[in-house]
Amino acid sequence: MPKKKPSTPPPSRKPRADAERNRERILEVAKEVFTRDGAAASLDDIARRSGIGNATLYRHFPTRDDLIEAVYRSEVEKLAAAEQRFAATMPPLEALRAWMLLFIDHVADKRLILPAMDTVAGGSVRLIEGARSDVHGAFVSLVQRAIASGDLRADTNPDDFVRALVGVFHTTALQGWEPSARRIVDILIAGSQPASKMP
Question: Which of 95, 131, 165, 179 has the CB geometry, 3.0–4.6 Å to 90, for a possible disulfide?
Fold first, then answer.
């Protein structure tokens, strides 16, 4: 009876963590390059700066639109994750303030990559609308936590915070919008505190 040949072990695959690191590195570099060069940025340049081959980049992001959308989505996910992290590690009012200031940084970053976002199917409006529920959910959660702790008045409406800061999007073309937006954060918080908490 002929001896069975030993089965050849399947080719070893890169650990999943390795693939995730590659993906995060691509997104980090792509954000910088799209900010600098707009939608015309070279994908070959992004792959080279990421320290990977073109095939790896296209395996993660088959099209330019996929990559631009993933860059924006990644920034929104970081913003949402920060809400949970701040809520777990900071007092309620401090967490709300820190997250609102981070949201302003997010708006500033989005403004820089907006020209690239406008080139994807459906444009930047589709991407922003797609992320609206994440941003709104973070606002509501943090404001409600501050209400429950007594740091904000019980009649505080989380949507007032949402409307005020989302309105910042419409002022980014004006000089000095960022310092103004940061002052608005403190005005909103101070104006929503119970009289007993006000200095």
Answer: 95
Single out the residue of 139, 185, 173 nearest to residue 158, CA to CA. 139
- The predicted-structure confidence for 73-112, as pLDDT tens digits, reads as follows 998 889 989 999 999 999 999 999 999 999 998 888 887 7
d(CA 119, CA 140): 31
What are the residues whose beta carbons fall under 8 Å from the beta carbon of 162, sequence distance 6 or more? 135, 136, 139, 140
The mean per-residue pLDDT over the stretch 10-31 comes to 77
Return d(Cα 104, Cα 112) in angstroms, integer.
Answer: 13
In 3D space, the residue among 71, 73, 84, 171 whose CA is nearest the CA of residue 128 turns out to be: 73
User: Tokens 């701040």 correspond to what residue?
Assistant: 86
The dihedral sign for the CA sequence 146, 152, 153, 158? negative
Please give the model's pTM, rounded to 2 decimal places: 0.79
